[in-house]
Amino acid sequence: MKSNFLPIFFILSVFYYTSCKAQEPFGENYLHVNKIIPLPNVKGRIDHLDINLREQIVYVAALGNNSVEIVDLKKGKVIHSLSGLDEPQGVCYIPGKQEIFVANGGNGECYFFNASTFEKTASIHLPSDADDVRYDSTSAKIYVGYGQGGIAVIDANTHKQIGNISLPAHPEGFQIDNSTKTMLVNVPDKKMIGLIDLMQLKLVDKWTSNFSTGNFPLALDDQQHYAFIGYRRPAKLVVLDSKTGKEISVNNMVSDVDDLYFDKMKKRVYISGGGGFINIFQQDALNMFKQIANIPTRNGARTSLFIAQLQIFILAERAETDNPAQLTVYKTSP
Prior knowledge:
The protein is mainly beta. The chain has a single domain (6-332), classed as 7 Propeller (Methylamine Dehydrogenase, Chain H), CATH 2.130.10. Helix content is 3%, strand content 53%. The chain has one helix at residues 6-15; strands at 31-38, 49-52, 57-62, 67-72, 77-82, 88-94, 99-104, 109-114, 120-125, 133-136, 141-146, 150-155, 160-166, 174-177, 182-187, 192-197, 202-208, 213-221, 226-233, 236-241, 247-252, 257-263, 268-273, 277-283, 289-296, 303-307, 312-317, 326-332. The strands form 7 sheets. It has a 4-stranded antiparallel sheet, with no helix packed on it. Strands 2-3-4-5 form a 4-stranded antiparallel sheet, with no helix packed on it. The longest helix is centred in the N-terminal third of the chain and has 10 residues, at 6-15. Residues 1-21 have low confidence and may be disordered.
């Protein structure tokens, strides 16, 4: 399908080609540091995070450390480390089973762990590069992006792979829209956003870009039917109609983006980028998105987790020469 938003996107990209790194800090009142939680002995890149909301336990995929760090938010400390992994990238908590699911990018192995004893309970092998993970509690299914172009469908109850979605290249960020029984997925190597029918488990539409690359993170608002896409080259936040691909808004943002979230309650977008900032955008009455914050962080701190129920934003900051790895926990402002 030919995209609806590309001509305008290209014009704006050329006209506004300035990264948020050039901006001065502002809007720091929108996030307040609540606590800093050290991640002792964690080296290298940190990837995705998830939470056991009831117990307020956060799971941190420490890819470069070959571990998943298990962090008690209330106590403000690491309480366990799942070691011996192979480049863990995706992680999710399964409340009904009280299990932790980990996708290993190095060997493609996906492991289930008991969340109380931390014993391994099952494993599933994917061909390679098991990456981002989404758990759909309504169907008890786990979706795992992997390899050169696939999303595996796993039954969380039986620990068995029950389906597969074929894609033309490796998937990055993807989100489920239960209101339409669809999934949107970023496929950056093809400069593509794919629309998947979850009943058929197949790609049914796509929107491509000839002028922008590196579409990694993706968030959805199933009420307004908005899709929020983070592009790295150039660094842009693009808001689309999630049904048609029509452009709604385009903004400059922080470079090297890896996570972004939409807060339905406050109509805000939170973005973490390795360029050294958290960006916040506010939706206005005309359905445009204006940047309201550019909050400094460590360079390379590009992965995060927004927890709407607690109104907290957690930033994973990798270790530097003189600074150990840590989670910075922010409270959002009204």
